[in-house]
Amino acid sequence: MNSNDENSGAPRVALVTGASRGLGAALAETLAQDGWHVLAVARTTGALEELDDRIQARGGHATLAPMDITAEDAMRHLCRQCHDRWGGIGLWAHTAIHAPPLSPAGHVGAKDLDRTLAINLRATAALIPLVEPLLKAGMTASVRSTALFFDDPVAGQKFYGLYGATKAAQIALARSWQAENAKHGPRVQIATPAPMATALRARFYPGEDRSLLTPCADEARRILAEVSA
């Protein structure tokens, strides 16, 4: 982890997985502007550094963790470091997702299947037991920590079989975790973002007029306002 803030105090800490671009980056920037210390996780080091530059330019603070969420040992080490440094976290926003090529269900390739399952489902299932203790440790008598997931209800549509199935499975897992923690926390919330001008959407709709889509920054502010309500 590389941090621009070595203060050993106890800031409000938000973990954002998939923070390098799109909604994840927008959430990270918005949280930093609101006074959170952002622990930003993504595979692309250059994009994380650009995110950090934008956060610092607005007076915010971030810790960069350039790693693959499917590397379970690395994520376990990251969570251990997070515990040792801050004690716990107040928010986990899980935006990391893999979008395989759209294809008929009968033409799904084995490599695409393995990679999509690894990121969209297996990594999520592995992260929940690692992050849950951090969220519980970050709770106070008046504030329940929050895990935030993002639904994309395309399951069952033509050519979305692999992406739609793994995304639906991820959300089903999140809903179970939500029900299990309804009384005592952490809170688990599931948002459905509006169509945004992201690289993910561009892969699905290459000819779409992107000027009609919602800016990621606007959607990040809306979602976080709902979470804090």
From TrEMBL:
GO molecular function: oxidoreductase activity
Keywords on record: Oxidoreductase
GO annotations of cellular component type: membrane
Family annotation (Pfam families): adh_short (PF00106)
Superkingdom field: Bacteria
Family the entry assigns: Belongs to the short-chain dehydrogenases/reductases (SDR) family.
Protein name from the UniProt record: SDR family oxidoreductase
Source species of the chain: Rhabdonatronobacter sediminivivens
Source organism phylogeny: Bacteria, Pseudomonadati, Pseudomonadota, Alphaproteobacteria, Rhodobacterales
